[in-house]
Amino acid sequence: MSTIQFKTNINCSGCVAKATPALNQVAGVHNWQVDTANPQKILTVNTSTSAQAIIAALQAIGFKASIQE
């Protein structure tokens, strides 16, 4: 399992509520959180799946995500 961080446009509790089902359904996602106080809206995911699968799940519901470097 690895921890991956993403820059997102998930910026409020409503956005977190919308993203929750999508992130919870991605196979291998065990724990995640979004730092909405951070200007880059950092999503931290503990997962055994690929970063691309997480990005695709978020894009499917209208959010943007890119790997935080």
Describe the structure.
The protein has 69 residues and is of the alpha+beta class. It has one domain (2-67): Alpha-Beta Plaits, CATH 3.30.70.100. The protein is 33% helix and 33% strand. The protein contains 2 helices and 4 strands; from the N terminus they run E-H-E-E-H-E. The protein has a 4-stranded antiparallel β-sheet with strand order 2-3-1-4, with helices on one face. The longest helix has 13 residues, at 13-25. It is globular. The mean pLDDT is 94. Residues 1-66 form the HMA domain.
How many discrete domains? Answer: 1
Question: Hey, roughly how much beta strand do the residues contain?
Answer: 25-35%
- Classify the secondary structure makeup into a structural class: alpha+beta
**How many whole angstroms does the radius of gyration measure?**
11 Å
Task: Enumerate how many helices there are, as a single number.
Answer: 2
- Biggest beta sheet attributes: 4 strands, antiparallel
Oligomer: single chain
**For the residues shown, what is the average pLDDT?**
94
Strand order of the largest sheet: 2-3-1-4
Specify the helix fraction band. Answer: 25-40%
CATH architect. name: 2-Layer Sandwich
